[in-house]
Design goal:
seven-stranded mixed sheet; six-stranded mixed sheet; 15% helix
Amino acid sequence: MVNLTLLGVGAMNSPRYRPAGLAVRWSGHRVIIDGGGTAPEGEHVDAWLVCDERAELMPSIRRRSAALGVPAGAVEYQAGGVRLRPLPVEHTAHPTYGYVIDHHGHRAVWAPEFWTFPDWARDAELMFADAAGWDRPIRFAGGVGGHAATVQTANSAARAGIARLVFAHIGRPSIRAIDRGELPPFGEWGAEGRTYRLR
């Protein structure tokens, strides 16, 4: 069994949530993905993976990962029957990634930031996805990428056969939707500290 615990569910500079991050644990192994430099104290970390090596949070991630004795980067990690591999997403002008987490034919996806829904996520049992925008996408200045809208991502995920969709990069428009009591048409809001399982 692979346990996936959300370290945070916030978009950059969230007024409410810690930065989106994931701790992946299985049979004596532990890998962190993103997280803004946050990682629970007192636990061994085998690798620290990131989706964007130029992200604003990279200085704090590098400091924390260096203190733990592991480099941080957009790389593949494999051990004990689990493989985490980066795959490209359309998000900004430079290379950015999401991760597929494979465990004996079972798949989870970590894709907290993207402009278009990644085709490679199709048929995943569990997907953590971008929720920066609510009912319309957020376009970056200059028209280079951005964030998909939560409502759009929910519909795309349902069509792509995602079994369980968890929104884990919640931006201000989606926070306002949460405060209004709105729910996405498919999927659920992620919660910091919650653990999800991939069997």
